[in-house]
Amino acid sequence: MRKRSTAGGKKAKARHRTALKSGRRKARVAKPPSGAIEKPEIALLTRELDDARDQQMAMSEVLHAISRSKFDLSAVLESVAEAAARLCRSDGAVIFQLDGGVYRFAAGYSLLPAYLEIERQSIIAPGPGTVVGRAAMTRQVIRIDDLLSDPHYELKEESKAEGNRSMIGVPLLRDGEPVVVIGLGRRRIDPFGDREIELATTFAAQAMIAIENARLLNELRQSLEQQKAASEVLQAISSAPGDLEPIFTTMLEKATRILRGGVCCALSPRRRRVAAGGDL
Question: Do 170 and 201 form a contact (C-beta atoms < 8 A)?
């Protein structure tokens, strides 16, 4: 039997070790770096964090408007319009409020003067012809990628005053009824994305709570003012039972205060005689 060469065995072992090391290096190179796996997840979390921060800031502005305006509903609606426009990165915003089965202009943000006047005069019924009407009809967020190419959109000429092309309508529901609709527009073809629509939907639910609180507190304040005015009128009657002049004067003052300067006329006994054709 021939004896194996020791040198040959050593060379074979060395080649084996080299092959193993090379295989390990290739395996290490083939494995994707951990940072590449984490980057999409980090980007998603960062975007969600930014969206949450923007949404909190938008609601903070609305709540600040409520406290600053002493529950003035019109001021709250204006703040909602501004916050919605910033949150969804639109060029402008309008808010229409349900009134007698139709929607009337209630607030606007960053609108050109000519278009603002058009919106103030608009009376919108639920239907496909406008973004507000379509959102009210469907009770869902409505997206119009380019209103000029939308066959159902009826206000193409009016929209040229603002230059809007891409729009969304966001209904604010109370007991399932769209009592407020926010319209957001961009002066270019730049369709609103799914994430922006999701943000608008969430914001609408939160904004509806703020609007309802402002409305209820406003109604409560008006009720208290009316009760106070009635109490003061009764006090004037009890303090001067035989003289109607101060009673009518008090009624006029209280009614004017409640109506915030609205025209109100209460005739004194002398004026009633003149109106009836009596002498001066």
Answer: yes
